[in-house]
């Protein structure tokens, strides 16, 4: 018999509770034992329903209950989630979490504490909601190493960019519409500024390299500067724009970045639209694996948590997926990328001449999108520092204004 | 300490041996114990190398060795793989397999024998090579049920169709080229006639419904009738043609099929090209998960096998994923699909009139691909039996010859 407690009875916590109830017989058969929720921690009070009799406001009722052997942490945030998680692990309880803030900051300590206490700290639901990512990745890492990880890791921004493209609309109006429809938070910064995707990328990279990847050191750009005109030019080239979290890993040095990037609309990530998420791993021998699906939602996230619970109850010992030693990120300015550059001009031929002079080539690929006095082109792959110098030079050319630029996800 | 034996030292078996050697230290750390290969069964003799001293021609040397606790079956075929697997399981050994023939026929019996002997029978590598499919599916089925499974499950046919599209080439010449390049067998029937994809679909469906799905009852069409002209019309409509294995599951009745189908070239399966495989599951709550990657190959397949070995050594008890009770397949002729129909004509207007008369609508969607005296159109969704009657009627119209037709993967 396994007894669980749920800390935090919001969308995710209540989803876990109801899915565990509805699937109790089936889960019991698969686990070989019944799994029953004994306690629910929440600051709020509520009455009625099956959950109310289990409610407590005091975490001690869970941490000190020796019958409870597994805890679902669905509170979010660093505090008090960190303290409660650490104390539950030290009491030998498994903890399963959807809390990407906590995992991205304290994952190494918590997994080490789990291992020292013959318990598991698991968090499949922290990246990609119901998409199975961490468990397959971990299994593949038994025999492979990852050379690139890349993905669309935030559903809100992918929804906004997909709608901008589909309706030929601007960022502000599309964000407002997404907020009305419940696809964006009232304070959308964590999503639209790329921080959510950045934390998820850091978690995946920590697993890939076995060391702590500090998310605050990953260069991160959001999507608020993406315009209607950028999509018009990207579309004219057969491309689209997505917020991509990408990292190349060479000799254990990570070149990571979160930014809106241009990619083919017929590519595996280019067709991932709406609130869908996707992540692709390039391995030494398997080439490439893509995992995609809806990246959030009450029941998918609950499903991921219950999968972790089932594993924790059967595999009670596991080495930490990463240590606290910080992984090396490559020096800023060293990344090599091709880019799409959009500019306005007063004289078309003069603008082309200036760009070709600055980029020292007659082979720039130009995009004609039918917008008066605007053009766009693809640069060759260049180091960030070199590109920055060239784009400054181009901006100084008379009659030219550089409007925006995007890295290409892959070289054309 | 875990001792393994490998039965069958071909591409897969030798891949497992070398990957286990190369990653020995890391695998030991993850498993918490060393995993060492003690015996290799093969009919051939070979000398030199690390494997030779372990070679035996007698399966008894493995089955009767009480120190060996896990067996990799990479022989393929039904016999003697079935007998050896059954005896190993009855001796309490785990068996991990890449043998889709055996799993699709005797999976239920073998899993039952495993469960009765506190051992595991596992076969992640039998579907999709190195793509993690069975393990994630099984985890998701803890809390979800599948309403549709669909995929590109055969790399050879996907390579051939991708090349036909890319090079505007016919089937026969592309097959020959694929054989020359090693992407197709000398006897290509199992692949090009759809049987390989059909067995893999049957395995996935058996997992989804928990009962034996008889692959020989799944309507299966291969790709040898797909022509250059079919691709020309599909492309003109923004579509492509893929060999799709698809099943809808309603009230535990399965409507399954393997056939070349028309789908958007900007859809998640439409962008899966070359030897890549992909499978998509539609769940009750998660909507849709897509898993894709290279579906075969020595090292990816070895990786999947070693993942299974790692799980079997840590989770030694598991309920069989399906029983021997046969699942119900829907009656033939009941499936409802829209189709792309290609025909030649002597009079363009008369051909259109005839098609609209037969399909009783003025809303057929016509495709103009610039091929003289040919056209194609999309039908509305129709029961197979109704469609067959209409297409017979259309074929009788004067000056018309129906050349080919394809189900659409999704309604347009």
Keywords:
homodimer, 412 residues, alpha/beta, ten-stranded mixed β-sheet, 20 strands, 27% strand
Task: Explain this structure.
The structure is a homodimer of 412-residue chains. The first copy, chain A, has 412 residues and is α/β, with parallel strands linked by helices. In chain A, 37% of the residues lie in helices and 27% in strands. The first copy, chain A, has 14 helices and 20 strands. Chain A has helices at 11-22, 24-31, 60-63, 81-90, 100-116, 134-141, 155-167, 171-180, 189-192, 195-209, 228-236, 298-314, 348-358, 384-396; strands at 2-7, 35-41, 55-56, 68-73, 94-97, 121-122, 146-152, 211-212, 239-250, 253-264, 276-283, 287-294, 323-326, 328-329, 336-337, 339-345, 365-367, 374-378, 382-383, 400-408. In chain A, the strands form 4 sheets. In chain A, strands 7, 9, 10, 11, 12, 14, 16, 17, 18 and 20 form a 10-stranded mixed beta sheet that branches. A 6-stranded parallel beta sheet of chain A has the order 3-2-1-4-5-6, with helices on both faces. A two-stranded parallel ribbon of chain A has the order 8-13. In chain A, helix 4 links the parallel strand 4 (68-73) and strand 5 (94-97). In chain A, helix 1 (11-22) packs across helix 12 (298-314). The radius of gyration of chain A is 24 Å and the shape is elongated. The model of chain A has no long low-confidence stretch (mean pLDDT 95).
């Amino acid at each position: 018999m396994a007894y669980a407690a749920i800390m935090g009875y919001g969308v995710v916590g209540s989803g876990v509770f109801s899915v565990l109830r509805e699937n109790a017989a089936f889960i019991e058969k698969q686990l070989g034992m019944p799994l029953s929720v004994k306690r629910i921690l929440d600051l709020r009070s509520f009455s009625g329903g099956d959950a109310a009799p289990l409610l407590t406001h005091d975490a001690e009722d869970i941490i000190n209950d020796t019958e409870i052997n597994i805890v679902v942490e669905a509170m979010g945030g660093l505090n008090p989630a960190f303290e409660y998680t650490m104390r539950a692990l030290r009491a030998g309880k498994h903890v399963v979490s959807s809390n990407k803030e906590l995992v991205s900051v304290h994952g190494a300590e918590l997994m080490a504490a789990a291992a020292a206490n013959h318990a598991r700290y698991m968090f499949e639901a922290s990246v990609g909601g119901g998409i199975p990512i961490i468990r397959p990745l971990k299994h593949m890492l038994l025999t492979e190493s990852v050379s690139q990880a890349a993905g669309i890791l935030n559903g809100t921004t992918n929804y906004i960019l997909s709608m901008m493209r589909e309706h030929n609309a601007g960022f502000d109006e599309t964000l407002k519409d997404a907020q009305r429809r419940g696809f964006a938070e009232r304070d959308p910064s964590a999503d639209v500024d790329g921080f959510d995707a950045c934390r998820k990328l850091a978690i995946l990279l920590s697993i890939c390299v076995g060391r702590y990847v500090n998310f605050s050191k990953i260069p991160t750009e959001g999507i608020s500067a993406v315009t209607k005109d950028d999509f018009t030019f990207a579309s004219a080239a057969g491309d689209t724009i997505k917020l991509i979290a990408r990292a190349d890993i060479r000799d254990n040095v990570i070149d990571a970045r979160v930014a809106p990037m241009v990619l083919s609309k017929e590519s595996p990530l280019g067709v991932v639209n709406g609130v869908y998420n996707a992540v692709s791993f390039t391995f030494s021998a398997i080439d490439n694996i893509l995992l995609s699906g809806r990246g959030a939602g009450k029941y998918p996230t609950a499903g991921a948590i219950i999968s972790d619970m089932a594993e924790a109850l059967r595999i009670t010992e596991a080495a930490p997926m990463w240590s606290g030693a910080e992984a090396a990120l490559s020096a800023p300015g060293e990344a090599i990328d091709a880019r799409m550059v959009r500019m306005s001009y007063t004289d078309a031929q003069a603008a082309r001449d200036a760009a070709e002079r600055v980029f020292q080539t007659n082979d720039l690929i130009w995009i004609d999108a039918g917008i008066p006095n605007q053009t766009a082109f693809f640069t060759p792959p260049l180091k960030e520092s070199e590109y920055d110098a060239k784009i400054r030079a181009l901006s100084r050319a008379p009659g030219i204004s550089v409007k925006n630029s995007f890295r290409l996800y892959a070289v054309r």
